[in-house]
Amino acid sequence: MEISVNLPFEELLKIINKLAPKEKGEIAKLLIKENEISEKQWAEAIKRKKDFEAGKINTENWKSVKNRILN
User: For every residue of the chain, which 3-state class applies, written as one string?
Assistant: First the structure.
């Protein structure tokens, strides 16, 4: 199955709703995985938070923080 990136979200939901329960489960696993972070990523985020609160680092752009933590 090929899905266009220009597909409206509502249309995507309609397609997902037509899938078998097992396929819906696989999609759910993928979506959940996109929102999970590793122990290493969490430790880095906490360290940077503490460093910021202690004045050791300046503020920075949210995209920069997100990219560093996720990579």
Answer: CCCCCCCCHHHHHHHHHCCCHHHHHHHHHHHHHHCCCCHHHHHHHHHHHHHHHCCCCCCCCHHHHHHHHHC
